Amino acid sequence: MREEFQFWHTVIVRWGDMDAQAHVNNARYFTFFESARIAFFDSVDLRLHNHDSNEGPALVTTTANFRKQVHYPATLEIGVRLTRIGNRSISLAMAAFSEGTNDIVADATSVNAWVDYDKNQSADLPDWLREVLTRHIRLQD
Amino acid sequence: MREEFQFWHTVIVRWGDMDAQAHVNNARYFTFFESARIAFFDSVDLRLHNHDSNEGPALVTTTANFRKQVHYPATLEIGVRLTRIGNRSISLAMAAFSEGTNDIVADATSVNAWVDYDKNQSADLPDWLREVLTRHIRLQD
Amino acid sequence: MREEFQFWHTVIVRWGDMDAQAHVNNARYFTFFESARIAFFDSVDLRLHNHDSNEGPALVTTTANFRKQVHYPATLEIGVRLTRIGNRSISLAMAAFSEGTNDIVADATSVNAWVDYDKNQSADLPDWLREVLTRHIRLQD
Amino acid sequence: MREEFQFWHTVIVRWGDMDAQAHVNNARYFTFFESARIAFFDSVDLRLHNHDSNEGPALVTTTANFRKQVHYPATLEIGVRLTRIGNRSISLAMAAFSEGTNDIVADATSVNAWVDYDKNQSADLPDWLREVLTRHIRLQD
After folding, report:
1. Any chain D CB within 8 A of the CB of C140?
2. Residue D20 and residue B86: Cα distance in Å, rounded?
3. pTM of structure
4. What is the dihedral of CA B40, B100, B23, D30, to 10 degrees?
5. A45 pLDDT band (50/70/90 cuts)?
6. Would an 8 Å CB–CB cutoff place A65 in contact with chain B?
7. Is C18 close to A22, i.e. CB distance below 8 A?
8. Does residue B141 or residue A10 have the better pLDDT?
9. Which has the closest alpha carbon to B92: B75, B110, B74?
10. C18 touches chain A (CB under 8 A)
11. Which residue ranges in chain C fall short of pLDDT 50?
């Protein structure tokens, strides 16, 4: 299961991530997955390449399944897998594992559109990004 | 579109709900939808009935689509629709509208399992809840 | 006590504002006070005047006292009082009351420096702001 | 400066900790200091000793000074110093350093009352806690 993921990001659960049910709140997992997604984008130098651009990713849809409760203290290892390179979007699958185990506490999918922030509309993925993402997928085969 | 929803909950966006892109952060919408879901459950007196019970709802899956950016200051009206009463789960559809408009800024679905918190496993929906939810759906027809 | 405050801002407590002790988390009060502070600044048209400026307020210190626990559902009314107009700073006192009561659940003070964001250093309060704040204080006498 | 602190806790800044000004939000520092405080309390086995007790710490006041802006990505090292063991309270001083530097980005103080949660009123610090805290201070001399 862990083998399915190409990129990993570690999240240390904070006491304040828990809600009134004394477990990590559902909305907080989306913050964790956001952290992993941004770290993945950074791993392909997205921010570096994108520094002078007015284009970038914008989250359009995301889903999560909550499998096990998590209580502070805990460390989660989030695996990220690129599942689709669209003309104007990037799809990811992610899973949060309890540190050092094969226990998935939550998994998620996300679709990021590529957006021209000035025009506030979708745009074609730039060539450099398509290339680096394709190479990323190939490395994993 | 607004007619599809049976229950409404208002969320006042806080300045602190915005992220570094100066719009409301994706994870925050899940907090908004959580607020609406809990208000809906309260509208059928779930907490009242459930006061001495060790059973209750637990979110197992949720999805959101982000349609428009929201910036502070803003007020959102979240419509809630009961979409399925399962043997051991309750499914909802929700949509967040800009106040006083038909503009949906984000929509979501959620499935809550009915859980025995002590045993940490799913349980049948109690009769009183099934009855009140069924009546809820009937009222809308 | 309520008479001491010139400006009011209402905060609706969200279920998600509670922590694992099932009361509103201490850090969340600072978000509430931030909301009140920004609403106060907006009440003197700070953002409007400041639209093309590279200067603005930056929080340099804040203190809060937690007097009573707050549980969802709750509505808080936050009173804001301007306590000092410095050469390069604005000091506020704030108190969060349970809606419709004289019960203070938490109070706070804050100092905002006036900052040149480009130079990342403090700057003199602009004349228009000093004038509008002074008028604000006078109105209250 | 670092020598003044007896206990250390590391916080990894999340992208989502930033606000619309694209720096770490003020309220989030209180979450970071809360993390450090809880880790400190755990270091003297507070939760372990306290497992069957209805008493424990409750934050009554806290102050923070914001010295430097922090942007994602960043790691903060928070030093904790016990400043006072009262009859019914524990006072701490904390400072958040940029990882591996002597740069303090924010510092804070806090007072936790010792509280009988059932009666919702303050109580004397238990002997075991006074003893372990006193030993803690002595170790540092």
Report:
1. no
2. 41
3. 0.96
4. -50
5. confident
6. yes
7. no
8. A10
9. B110
10. yes
11. none
Best B62, B69, B104 residue to mutate vs chain A (most A CBs within 10 Å): B62
Q: A2-140: which CATH topology?
A: Thiol Ester Dehydrase; Chain A (3.10.129)
**Can you list the residues of chain B whose pLDDT is less than 70?**
138-141
Return the residue in D11, D26, D41, D105 with the most chain C beta carbons within 10 A, the one to mutate for interface testing. Answer: D26
Torsion on CA atoms B116, B122, B124, B127, rounded to nearest 10: 40
What's the ipTM?
Answer: 0.94
Rounded Cα gap, residues A78 and A45, in angstroms: 19
Beta bridge partners of A82: A92
Per-residue pLDDT at C15 = 97
Separation of alpha carbons D42 and D11, rounded Å:
16
From the CA of B29, how many Å to the nearest CA of chain D?
13
Chain D residues with CB under 8 Å of B22 CB are 20, 22
Mean pLDDT of all residues belonging to chain D: 93
- What are the backbone angles phi and psi of residue B69, rounded to the nearest 5°? -70, 145
Where exactly are the structural domains of chain B? 2-140
Angle separating helix axes D26-43 and C26-43, nearest 10 degrees: 160
Which amino acid does the sequence have at B2? R
Contact (CB, 8 A) for D73 and D79: no
pLDDT tens, D50-86? Answer: 777 889 999 999 999 999 999 999 999 999 999 999 9
CB C138 within 8 A of CB C82: no
Cis amide bond preceding C73, omega within 30 = yes
Q: Which of B59, B61, B63 sits opposite A61 (nearest CB)?
A: B63
Predicted confidence (pLDDT) per residue in C29-57, tens digit = 999 999 999 999 999 888 777 777 889 99
